[in-house]
Amino acid sequence: KDHTTCSSSSSRRHHTRNKVNHKSSRDNDNDPNDDESIFLLSMVAQELEQIRAFQQQKQKQKQQQHINQGKTTNTASEAKAGALYDILAHGSSISSSSSMPRACLTYVRSLPGNRFCIDCGAPNPDWASVTFGTLHCLKCSGKHRNLGVRRSFVRSLTMDSWCDSSSSSTNHPAQLLCMLEGGNQQLARFFERHELGNLNNGVGMVRYRTRAARFYQEHLQRHVVKVAKDGVYRGRGQYR
């Protein structure tokens, strides 16, 4: 069976069902209610807010430097902007070179299915496909890179910056939200509903080229935009 295509009627039926399931599911994919998890969630929200403030202030500083080009002295506002930038960059855990912030990383690793690579099952995956909000081992992350950034945008959890918006055209809080709102189990279940979950039947990386995968990607991005508009991140259970 060719998994790269499906009939329009079947595709519409499956896509509609998956969209509803994504919004209404209330299973163990949501946030635990114990004190430790609630504290972790509050730390995640703080880190996301720090990143937003960091990027906003950095952009203001760039604009101020552009305005003051050619001047030999700093204005009071420029000095104030520089001081605040230093506080954000050096007085907190957020900086231009920051890997994924600690609380966000802990949260992402704790999501169902994220202890193992979604493609081969290798333990402790350290690479992410921001496009699907999933974790992968080094070998499988290379396969995702070969798909091209439009199909799967790959980043390292620990070596790439998740905080400095100048390092790519993609908004980094949105990238983090893709990881927080995605997860290996969530995508695996989606693939199973489309008969793309059994890796022994030859679907492998081909499943990421299907219309079903494209639908998941687009729906996750739209979902993240809605979550971002909410302001303070309140956890997965609040958006399903």
What features would you describe in this structure?
By secondary structure, the protein is mostly helical. The chain has 8 helices and 3 strands. It has helices spanning 8-24, 35-67, 76-90, 102-110, 138-147, 172-181, 184-193, 211-229, and strands at 127-129, 134-136, 154-156. A 3-stranded antiparallel beta sheet has the order 2-1-3. Helix 2 (35-67) runs antiparallel to helix 3 (76-90), helix 2 crosses helix 4 (102-110) and helix 6 crosses helix 8. The two termini are 33 Å apart.
Short descriptors:
single chain; 240 residues; 8 helices
Strand order of the largest sheet: 2-1-3
Category by helix and strand content: mainly alpha
Report the total helices.
8
| Helix proportion | 40-55%
Rounded average pLDDT: 77
What characterizes the major β-sheet? Answer: 3 strands, antiparallel
Which radius of gyration do the C-alpha atoms yield? 20 Å
DSSP strand tally: 3
Series of secondary-structure elements, N-terminal to C-terminal: HHHHEEHEHHH
Beta-strand fraction estimate: under 5%
User: Looking at the structure, what is the overall shape?
Assistant: globular
Q: What are the low-pLDDT stretches, counting only 5+ consecutive residues below 50? A: 1-18, 22-27, 77-92
How many angstroms does the end-to-end distance come to?
33 Å
Produce the secondary structure layout:
Blueprint: H1 8-24, H2 35-67, H3 76-90, H4 102-110, E1 127-129, E2 134-136, H5 138-147, E3 154-156, H6 172-181, H7 184-193, H8 211-229
Antiparallel strand pairs: 1-2, 1-3
Helix pairs in contact: 2-3, 2-4, 6-8
